[in-house]
Specification:
By secondary structure, the chain is α+β, with helices and mostly antiparallel strands. Helix content is 33%, strand content 21%. The protein has helices spanning 8-19, 25-32, 36-48, 84-88, 114-125, and strands at residues 68-76, 93-98, 105-111, 130-138. Strands 2-3-1-4 form a 4-stranded antiparallel beta sheet. Helix 2 (25-32) packs across helix 3 (36-48).
Length: 151
């Protein structure tokens, strides 16, 4: 979905939903100058078009006991583009990306501690084609943000 297909009201609705996806349609409508029904219809269409992929809750990982955040570069001896399911099967992996550069895949991992991170690295090596990993542990997160609906 290209951003040029979103008008100002769509962009405003997306931004409002990113702030609080649980807002009532009446509140969303008031904020953008629409009725609750019209706001609901706009959001429904944004979902149908794939602009809004899902509604979720942002949870503090530390509150869940997940104090270690690591980014792992995965080296491979083969093309990893068909390995999405193998990476997704490791629940500690929050994101996995095929990348260009010296590594093949970049994964974002959250664990309770370094022992659990080491276990994730062991499981990564079990994926067919993985030949190495390089983990970088984050000491502090300045911020994380969702993509902004650009004009």
């Amino acid at each position: 979905m290209a951003s040029e297909n979103l008008d100002e009201i769509d962009r405003a609705l997306v931004a409002l939903l990113q702030q609080d996806a649980g807002q009532a349609y009446a509140a969303l409508g008031r904020a953008v100058g629409l009725s609750a029904g019209a706001a609901h219809e706009r959001v429904r269409k944004l979902r149908e078009r794939g602009v809004v992929r899902r509604t979720t809750v942002e949870v503090d990982p530390k509150a869940l006991g997940l104090g270690v955040l690591a980014f792992v570069m995965v080296d491979s001896s083969a093309w990893m583009g068909d390995s999405a399911e193998a990476f997704a099967a490791i629940p500690e992996i929050e994101e996995a990306h095929i990348i260009a550069g010296s590594a093949s895949v970049l994964v974002k991992v959250r664990t309770a501690g370094t022992e659990q991170l080491q276990d994730v690295l062991r499981r990564l090596y079990a994926i067919n084609g993985v030949s190495g990993t390089q983990a970088t542990v984050s000491l502090q997160t300045f911020f994380e943000r969702p993509p902004a609906p650009r004009r």
